[in-house]
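Local shape tokens:
==================
===
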Amino acid sequence: MAKYLISFPSAAMVLPDDEWKAAGRDAHAVIEEAKAAGVYVFAGGIAEDVPPLLVTADGAFTEGGYPWAPPLNGGFTVLELPSRDDAIAWAARIAKACRCDQELRVFQIDPQS
């Protein structure tokens, strides 16, 4: 089984004010379904009120991420699934609940980690 990242950037969630509560409820319901199915690894979002730190190999750090990279934000779900087709189906369920498209990626696992 592979681990899949299902995610969206914050800017993708453009909802009318009266839909936010329902989207949150529906997204949490899908996560509960994933837990019940035994495929849940973790889920959450990037804390956008805490700036990233760029840490060098010698331990020095500066506030901010890579200056050339787009910001990393939004919501993330990691599921462990038997196939890409299963991952696509779960991503569709999450997209419907969140009311925005989801990006799907598979983790390349280092067998020595």
Notes: Strands lie at 2-8, 40-45, 53-55, 61-63, 75-81, 103-106. The two ends are 16 Å apart (CA to CA).
